[in-house]
Amino acid sequence: MILRSQKIELTPNNKQSTQMSQHAGYARVAFNFGLSSFKVGLDQDEWRSHVDIKREFNAVKYDKFDWCKDLSQNASKNAIHNLGDAVTRWKKGQNKFPVYKNRSGKCSYQADNGEGTVKVHKKRIELPKIGWIRMREELRYSGEITKVVISKHNDTWYASITMRRLDSSNYKYQPPLFNENPPIGIDVGINTLATCSNGDTYGNPRPLKRYERKLARENRKFARKQKGSQNGYKQKKRLSAVHARIANIREDAHHQATIRIVRKASAIGIETLKITNMLKNRKLAKALSDSALGGFLTKLKYKADRRGIPIDEADRFFASSKTCSNCGHKKADLTLSDRQYHCSECGLDIDRDLNAAKNLCPT
């Protein structure tokens, strides 16, 4: 059994968007009610489970929140269940104590918990009490729906659908893995996102650098607005749209590069990066954050793991750039400004990143 999730953008009409906002508000109210009840129980030396809290909420919800009668009760039930999970993790020391949700926070709710109340057909999804909503794309997976979370980011609604797959053949677009594919070494960087040992290169779009001036302009406009005003709210949405655009460009570049790499490799060699230490260099910190190399390597690892491709991580102090990929000679005086590697022993003249990628290639 394999669980796979896919996040798909929704295109609801105005009525459907309002209904989803109401369900998200209902989930927030139920979560806060349950958290208050749990805190009261702690004060009385009583541990209240999510079942007890759910029973208490169901007894008073139609009196205190009569507007919830027209909404799906899955929103409140799953919110209280998620509160129970958060409390359990807190008890085990896995996370901090849960806090109240406010209106300005994340707008989301869990529409289904594997009960079959949500249906998906091609580019449409049916939500309880809302009906059929169009999606931007079809599901890539087939199987049993175990969880559906509806969320809103910058006035755009998304459905995160988790499927239970019985075997890996249910993945529609998974290409067959041929053992005759060569192993590939990958060197990541700022100017070029990834340089492969087979000569392939994947560009780094650097979206933050591209939108830096626009981002600063929208920030200045937002700072001039009166706090809590409608114009301030509108400007905040414009600012969020710029941030979302930057994040989307970066994520798309990472996914496009990683899926192309894993389709060509039988084994992958990468370097071990300590991103937090690299960010201490104030001259490179912004460019490194814009490249998000840690996110790129994370995507590469899980996509390779899905296809059974082994990942060989080099030692943290392995000098992949300074070592000659032809004879193994180490050039100690190599600097960051040297983009070509010239070996004084064997005379090799090669691109610096390509030389590092060849050294990282698993044998």
Can I get a quick summary?
With 363 residues, this protein is of the alpha+beta class.
Description:
The chain is α+β, with helices and mostly antiparallel strands and 363 residues long. It folds into 2 domains: 2-169, no CATH class; 184-360, no CATH class. Helices cover 40% and strands 19% of the residues. It is built from 10 helices and 14 strands. The protein has helices spanning 14-43, 50-64, 74-91, 207-210, 212-224, 230-262, 275-278, 285-291, 293-306, 352-360; strands at residues 2-9, 107-112, 119-121, 124-127, 131-134, 144-153, 156-165, 184-188, 192-196, 201-203, 268-270, 311-313, 340-342, 349-351. Strand 3 and strand 4 form a beta hairpin. Helix 2 packs antiparallel against helix 3. The radius of gyration is 25 Å and the shape is elongated.
Q: What distinguishing features does this structure have?
A:
alpha+beta; 40% helix; elongated; 363 residues; 14 strands; 2 domains
